[in-house]
């Protein structure tokens, strides 16, 4: 698995952008991102914030979503932070994994929401049904670069 893209944006509801490198900060999120600054759409006291640090998406999701909706959306439109090529949840589930010098753990799925459908004026609920990605927490702060390999941590080093 390889980190294909890093996507961030400083504020809710504004277009996101690609970056080649980012710092992941434990308990905060990706430096420069709206959730890092607590300005994301879902930064509300009644919502659990420990699942807002980062969102992951399989590289193949965009093709499937565009096929379902007959659109030409970009990864930026799907508003997930990290796009992973050759993503395999069975390898990452319930494990700590590295991307660059940071460590992560998946905490739940990231299903599509009505907010994204309204923002894009597309039926994203159908487009991303069962393929909306995952949310992860940052276990250890570090730096990520596009092209980094995703490595599962086995407790004795990496595997």
Characterise the protein shown here.
It is a single chain. By secondary structure, the protein is α+β, with helices and mostly antiparallel strands. It has a single domain, classed as Beta Barrel (M1 Pyruvate Kinase, Domain 3). The chain contains 5 helices and 11 strands; from the N terminus they run E-E-E-E-E-H-H-E-H-E-E-H-H-E-E-E. The strands form 2 sheets. It has an 8-stranded mixed sheet. A 3-stranded antiparallel sheet has the order 4-3-10, with no helix packed on it. The longest helix is centred in the middle third of the chain and has 10 residues, at 60-69. It is globular and about 40 Å long. Mean pLDDT is 88; it is low at 43-47.
Write the layout of secondary structure elements.
Layout: E1 2-8, E2 17-19, E3 21-25, E4 29-30, E5 54-58, H1 60-69, H2 75-78, E6 82-85, H3 89-92, E7 96-99, E8 102-109, H4 114-120, H5 124-127, E9 134-140, E10 142-145, E11 150-153
Parallel strand pairs: 5-6
Antiparallel strand pairs: 1-2, 1-6, 3-4, 3-10, 5-9, 7-8, 7-11, 8-9
User: Cα distance, first to last residue?
Assistant: 13 Å
Mean pLDDT: 88
What percentage of amino acids are in beta strands?
A: 25-35%
* Overall tally of structural domains: 1
Number of helices: 5
What's the main sheet like?
8 strands, mixed
What spatial order of strands do you see in the largest sheet?
A: 2-1-6-5-9-8-7-11
Write down the CATH class: Mainly Beta
The poorly predicted ranges are 43-47
Helix content: 10-25%
């Amino acid at each position: 698995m390889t980190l294909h893209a890093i996507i961030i944006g400083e504020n809710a509801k504004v277009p996101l952008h690609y970056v080649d490198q980012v710092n992941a900060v434990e308990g905060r999120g990706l430096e420069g991102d709206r959730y890092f600054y607590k300005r994301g759409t879902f930064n509300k006291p009644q919502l659990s914030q420990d699942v807002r640090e980062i969102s992951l998406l399989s590289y193949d999701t965009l093709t499937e979503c565009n096929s379902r909706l007959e659109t030409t959306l970009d990864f930026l439109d799907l508003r997930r932070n990290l796009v992973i090529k050759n993503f395999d949840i069975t390898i990452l589930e319930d494990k700590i994994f590295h991307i660059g010098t940071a460590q992560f753990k998946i905490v739940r799925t990231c299903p599509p929401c009505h907010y994204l459908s309204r923002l894009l004026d597309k039926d994203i609920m159908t487009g991303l049904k069962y393929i909306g990605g995952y949310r992860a927490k940052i276990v250890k702060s570090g730096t990520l670069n596009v092209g980094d390999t995703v490595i599962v941590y086995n407790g004795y080093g990496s595997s």
